[in-house]
Description:
Number of helices of chain B: 19
Radius of gyration of chain A: 23 Å
Organism (chain B): Sphagnum jensenii
Domain Bromodomain associated (chain B): 47-124
Largest interface: A-B, 79 and 87 residues
Number of strands of chain B: 1
Number of strands of chain A: 1
Family (chain B): Belongs to the TAF8 family.
CATH topology of the largest domain in chain B: Histone, subunit A
Order of helices and strands of chain B: HHHEHHHHHHHHHHHHHHHH
Shape of chain A: elongated
Distance between the termini of chain B: 113 Å
Oligomer: heterodimer
Structural class of chain B: mainly alpha
CATH class of the largest domain in chain B: Mainly Alpha
Keywords (chain B): Nucleus, Transcription, Transcription regulation
CATH superfamily of the largest domain in chain B: Histone, subunit A
Largest sheet of chain B: none
Region (Disordered) (chain B): 249-290, 403-444
Amino acid sequence: MNAVITHNPSGEPTQVHSDAALLDFLSSLLDYTPTIPDELAEHYLSRSGFQCPDIRVTRLVSIAAQKFIGEIASDALQYCKSRQAAATKDKKGHQHGKEKRLVLTTEDLSAALREYGVNIHHQEYFADSPTAGTAPSQKTGD
Amino acid sequence: MKEWQQKQAKIGRREVKKILTNGAGTGSSGVSSGSGGGGGSSGDGVDAFARAVTKVAVSQLCEATGFHALQRSAVETLADIALRYLSDLGKAAHSYANLSGRTECNALDVVLAMEDLGLAGAAETSHCVSSSGALRDVMRYVEYAEEIPFARPVPHFPVSKKRVPTPSFAQLGETPPHLHIPSWLPAFPDPRTYCQTPLWEERKSDPCLDKLEQAQQCQKAERSLSSLHLQLSTQGALASDGLKNPQNLVTSSLGDSQLVSRQQWPSREQDASSDKAALEAHSSKGKVKRPAALAHNTFLAPPLPAGEKEVSHITPYRGIAEVDTWKQDSAAPVTLPSVLEVFAPALKPVNKGIEVENSGSRSLEEKPGRLISEMKDRMPVCLTFDWGQKTHTKAMAAKLSLARTVSPPSTKRGRGNTLSWKEEEKDEKSKRAKQILAHAMEES
């Protein structure tokens, strides 16, 4: 589809078409209720200087945020599943029932977020010697 | 940095440190460095509420993705990222709107901001905003993703207190007090709220009136005292004589004081002297009266034996009548009662004694039963308790034993004029024993 739009010599008809699609999409947003509440989105948008009386635009923003979070969560889920699969492979079906439970951990989340440019790691913990804290930080960093 | 970390370690807290670096949104990251959900540090109630709402929304999304449970730190991180993404998007859209000379954002600004922040479709070369890859991704997401509404209705926040402005002159329909004040300005408050008003100490009471009041009260007290004396000496006719003069004196003295008070108290000595005189007169009268009053105090006097009643009411009423008539015309000359009348109350005990003697002598000849009946008349309260058969018989036995110990009343009667209480009591007991016996006989 990228190719269709970009390499079309006469771009005007497609533009009109996409404008109509955008309008349709915006009007369809009136019936859509995003998971991130409108009030929350409005509050944070007004804080950042965003001013718009149109609820559809606010919903567009909150849907974008929702999509962003959803993508991160699904990535983390994939990480979690692969980790569990590796664990069950090692143990050869010792604890099938227990390992099925999917928990969003910070490790999976940090791995998923690294793709989106968000770098997350634990704070270094220094136990008693100055060298003790360096090892875990290297681990989480890599 | 290391020192701070060591400090943290010393405290012993192991916190998840989140360093959020938005690599994609480099265009707007410089602007958005200050705001966003930073690690739950804000003590603001609005931020706390917003973070709580965000956490719920994020966990709902995670649940929809397929997770069974969430780590708390992961939820916090995701909520932070969501809030940061929202505000970054808002800032980017706002800056795009400002770039095109608008203050209000529209959907195209948002799409441009999404392109800036988002990853998909970032390499779009078409200059058509409405057909960008980011927007198409969002459209696809809306189309295919499950619609998960927020679990609860969220109130609009932050709640700001509405301030009611003061009404202006025009709203109140007043004209400003001065010409240079336009009518659209808020009206002045009431003059009493800003003008200084002198405060006079008002005297509620006049000292002269106070004195007058005091005198009247004194008069009242005197009157009540005199009426008390009257009551005490209702039996004697001479008591009226004793009461007349003090009252008269008191009233006259008070009248004087009233007169004097109207003349601004020129001489208090006069008043005092008159009071003194009244007091002296009173005390002198009291000396005469007191024995009579004592003798006629019905509470102090010994109980009247039978036959006394007919005698007692002869003398007193005349005295009261006299007092009444005197009260009606106080101006009339006081008629002093005779010496016999004056000393009647004092003489009374003697009379009584004689009568008691008479009754005693009479009772000698009569049956003891009659005396008992007389005693019955004398006793005002006769309590009989019925506690069943056993107690009844016991009481009967006790009464009988008592009656046995008590010697016949007739002999006691004949012994003297003065009737002692003990004898009366014994008589009464024996009488009751008899009654109980009779009752028991009837029952059986």
